[in-house]
Amino acid sequence: MNSFLIAVGASFLTLFIAAPATFAFTQWEFRGKETLFFTSLVGRMFPPVTTLIPIYLLMKFLQLLDTHLGLILIYAAFLVPLVLLILREFFSQVPMEICECARLDSASSFQVFIRIELPLSINGIIAAGTLCFVEAWNEFLFALVLTSFNAKTAPVVLGTFVENEGMIQWGALAALGVCTVMPTVLFMIFLHKFLIKGLTLGSLKG
C-alpha cells in the first residue's frame, strides 16, 4: 500500500507540474527558453546517490523522514525533467493553427491547455504517467535510506526480508516478489496500447 500511494502520488504530482511547464515551453516565446529547458534536465545527469546526503539532511530539517509526502516530493523532483523531455515532443506536434484559432475565439491560455493540448496529447501523457509509476514503484535507494517503518516500500521490504535467525524465508520472499511485480505487469497489460502509441508517435515523419 505504501508503494502504491507513493507511486500514484508521485506520478500525479509530476504530471501536474510537468504538463503546464511543457505547454509553456512549446507555446510561449520568452528569452532564455531553450537554456532554461536544458537546465531543467541537469538533475537527470547525476546519479541519485550523489544527492543522497543533502536530500537526507533536507528531509530531516523538514521533518519528512519516513513519510509518504517526503518520498513523493523526491520522486517528483527527479521525474519532472524526464516527463518534460517526453511531453515536449507531443505538445510540439499539436498544430499551432488550432491553438491560434482558439485564441482568436477569446480562449485563454488555460483553456487552450485544458481543451486542446491535453486531449490531443493524451497518449503521451499516459505513456509518461506509466513510466513515472514504474520508476517510483521500483525505486530502492531513497526509500531504503529515508524510511524506517511508516513509509517503507515493497522493494525495501523485499530486499530486507529475513527471519530473526538471519535465514531467508524463501516462500514468503517469493510471494512478496510476485506481489511487488504484479502492479507493474497489470499496468503494462492494460495500458500497453497507449504506451506503444505514446513512445512511437513522432518517430517517423512524412
Brief overview, please?
The chain is an all-alpha fold and 206 residues long.
Largest sheet: none
Total separate domains: 1
**Number of discrete helical segments:** 10
The CATH superfamily is: MetI-like
Radius of gyration: 20 Å
Return the CATH class.
Answer: Mainly Alpha
**Broad shape:** elongated
Number of E strands: 0
Distance between the termini: 46 Å
Low-pLDDT parts are 202-206
Helix/strand class: mainly alpha
Mean of the pLDDT scores?
82
Q: What is the CATH third-level topology name?
A: MetI-like fold
Order of helices and strands: HHHHHHHHHH
Describe the structure.
There is one protein chain. This protein has 206 residues and is mostly helical. 73% of the residues lie in helices and 0% in strands. It starts with a helix and ends in a 6-residue tail after the last helix. The C terminus is likely disordered.
Which terms would index this structure?
single chain; 206 residues; MetI-like fold; 10 helices
Question: What is the fold's blueprint, element by element?
Answer:
Elements: H1 2-27, H2 33-40, H3 52-61, H4 68-92, H5 96-104, H6 109-120, H7 122-138, H8 141-146, H9 154-159, H10 170-200
Helix pairs in contact: 1-4, 1-7, 4-7, 5-6, 7-10
